[in-house]
Automatic annotation (TrEMBL):
InterPro entries: Homeodomain-like_sf, HTH-type_Tx_Regulator, HTH_TetR, Tet_transcr_reg_TetR-rel_C_sf. Gene3D superfamilies: Homeodomain-like, Tetracycline Repressor, domain 2. Residues 27-46 bind DNA. One of its GO terms (molecular function) is DNA binding. The keyword Ion transport does not apply. The lineage of its organism: Bacteria, Pseudomonadati, Bacteroidota, Bacteroidia, Bacteroidales. Keywords: DNA-binding. This is TetR/AcrR family transcriptional regulator. Residues 4-64 form the HTH tetR-type domain. Coiled coil: none annotated.
């Protein structure tokens, strides 16, 4: 088995065990046994449970990054892309957190530890927002003075509502249509979308 396949298998097995048993209750030995790899192989790739936990978070962020990139590559208008990117991102993060069961509690408790891993993802996401904003300006859909700053503001705005969105505190009593209208009003008001 190739080096990257072995490492990927270890990360996937760890993700499943963390989701099922919790990060604290999972040992390196549990991961080695469940992956049918020896402890020596596991320690070749990961020096600690902390390191493999970070690799699990990073793999989930890589998947999210790919999903966001697919939205950007769609043949739809830039204003539709921005809205779809926002919802796709929030829904994908929510799905990852819920899919991973007990990892959810760890995610919220260790948000600053997760932040260290997110830096690379954040940079990719900001670039994707820049690409869509630039496309929107070029096509005359948006009027944006500073694409770089606007992309960062959109990114951090979406990131800022991530935890309340996952917990269901935002728009819980609104219909999807009403919630969508609020989001569009805020986003397009800031981007000065041209009608």
């Amino acid at each position: 088995m190739a080096v990257s396949k072995t490492k990927a298998k270890l990360v996937d097995v760890a993700r499943q065990l963390f989701a099922k048993m919790g990060v604290e209750n999972t040992t390196m030995n549990d991961i080695a046994l469940a992956s049918k790899k020896g402890r020596r192989t596991l320690y070749t790739y990961f020096k600690s449970k902390e390191e493999i936990y970070m690799a699990v978070v990073e793999s989930e962020l890589d998947i999210l990054s790919d999903i966001m990139k697919r939205v950007v590559e769609k043949d739809i208008s830039p204003d539709q892309k921005i809205i779809e990117m926002i919802y796709t991102r929030l829904d994908a993060v929510k799905e990852v957190v819920y899919r991973n069961g007990t990892l959810r509690a760890t995610f919220f408790r260790d948000i600053w530890r997760v932040e260290k891993v997110r830096k690379r993802f954040d940079a990719k996401e900001i670039q994707l927002f820049k690409d869509v904003l630039r496309e929107g300006v070029e096509k005359g859909v948006f009027q944006v003075d500073d694409i770089d700053m606007t992309a960062e503001l959109v990114h951090y705005s979406v990131k800022g509502i991530e935890v309340p969105y996952i917990r269901g505190h935002i728009g819980a009593k609104l219909t999807d249509e009403t919630r969508g209208q609020y989001v569009e009003n805020i986003v397009f008001g800031a981007l000065r979308r041209k009608e």
